[in-house]
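Escalation from tier 1.

The customer reports that the assembly of two entities below gives different structure tokens on two consecutive runs. Tier 1 could not reproduce it. I'm attaching the input and our single run for tier 2 to review.
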Amino acid sequence: MRLLLLEDDKTLAEGIIKGLNRMGYVVELAMNLSQAESALKTDQFELAIFDLGLPDGNAVSLIKKLRKAGQQVPIVVLTAWDDIDTKVLALNEGANDYVVKPFELRELEARIRVQVRKANQQLNDVIICGELSVDIASQQCRFRNKVINLTRLEWLLVKQLALHMGRIVSKEQLESACYGWNGDNESNSLEVHIHHLRKKLDPSLITTIRGLGYRLKDESL
Amino acid sequence: MKLWSLRRSLVIGINLAVIAVLAITAWTSYRDILHELDEVFDAQLAQTAKSLATFYTPSPETHSVPKRIPISNYDDTGEDEPANERGPSGHKYESKIGYHIYSNNGELLAFTNQLQILPLKNLDAGYHTLANDAQTWFIYSYFSESKGIWVRTFQRQDVRSELSSYLASEQLYPLLLMWVPISLIILFIIYLVLKPVNRFALDLRARALNNLSPIESDLPKELIPIKQAINKLLHQIKMFSEREKRFIADASHELRTPLSAIQVHAENIIYAESLEDSKQSGKAIFHAVERMSHLVNQLLRLNRLDSLDNSADFDEIEIKTLVSLAIDSLPINQVEDYQWQIDVPTIKITCNNALIVSALTNLLSNAMKFSPADSTIQIEAVDTSASIIIKIRDQGSGVPAEITEQMGERFYRFREHTNIAGSGLGLSITSKIIQLHHGKISFNNIQPSGFEVQIELPNSD
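Tier 1 run:
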């Protein structure tokens, strides 16, 4: 699952990225409005976290602009402005949630999950796919009722595939979800991790669609 | 001294004036009447004397017993009781008027009863006023040449003054009667005149504490300057409180960001998977704390400057000394990275040395921050007769012209510089210091590349 963080304070951004990485997210950083805008235009994210006061303006205007253009990515505002007017304005313009600084990462992460859940029309954080269950909150993967130990990248892969269960996820999407913009893009490394994942689970669970990408079989169909 | 209320002053003042005018009118008319009365009485004395002289026939005997004309036996008790005033024997006032008739050689021929109290024997012809220990008398002395006798008619003063006191009290009634309606009218007029003042006061009193909108009520011309002054004050308070509100919001915003960084990194330390990870987070926390304490220090300084007395600790000092003190307080290894071109003649200035040094330090450190290493930073001072101008020039990239106006606002940082450390308060502090010295600070881009800050301080000589 890949997020976009719009934050101009470098120290804080580094801390958030580190924390969210630990919690199983890949986070891309934009330090001003124009960077965030072009990132959202050219790339896909599960969710965006926006600070409001940025060097090149107030992010509320960007939220408004994005929503007007039909951008549906859930946006969680993360800002030091705690007055009601600003909160209401940001929510009215299309923000999905509002977290005031200072905050605890646990809370931010929980709120991120709520928004992702909503966007995927799930009721809870456990995605069931036949005998496979992926619990996003506790970062746990069970298969045939047994906890499967996964490496970080395998976990990111299975989470991404589970979130888009039944649909084809392109190789690029998977790559960006696992490595982010700064990751090492050895083209075969993704295949290696898929291969490991298949070995740990049932090989028939993840199918390769040649030239398009991968798909997690939706057993409920 | 506490001033009286307008209403009280007006009521008492106008009433006193009216009473004074009425009293003067009454007094003059009383005096006029008294004078007329005196004239009538004096004429009466003269006429009586002449009549007596005409009708009196002296006795042929040379030494006859003087004739005593009897007077009534009523005593003047001071009370106006008809039964005690008059009767068959006469009137009680008879003792207060009378006459004496003398022969030419001073022999008393006829007299009313007051002989023993009045020495009238040798009075010349004409009017006289005599006072004995109890009373004053008005006397008219007349000599009849044909009969060779002196007739001296007299009258006690209190006969006249009683009449005049009646007249005076008669004067008081109309005065009082006139004064009552006049004072009511005065009260009413004052009420009408002061009504807008009272309404104005009520408006002000009824105002909610946080209502800083201007006063709109219609007021008489005299109160308009007060209204304008109050509205101006309200406007200033509003501006001030808005500025303070914005400042507090900005300050909390600025403090919350490093605070969040500390919290997030602290959380990361708790869950850190390696020592390297926690070391990194620790460093980030350290950095955020440093930033916060810098910010807090700057805020405290700004706050102290806000409450500083204007001319506290002013001393005369050479500008050269100020500049070298400012350069001394910059980090030495960074100072060495730049070429310094200092052109400061011997000019003395009266200022708060420590504050001006810190303003200069701030501007110089900005110049260093925003210009490339090894570039030249120029410091120049000029003494025009009216003011002393200090210019600091760097060879950095400058700032867009539209930004120079916002420079010096609290927390304002130019967006392209967010990668450069700073709180956005340095120029606020510098501007405030210059303002305390009644000076001006201005910012300009210079061609082809660079930025110039100009400080203009009033010349104390």
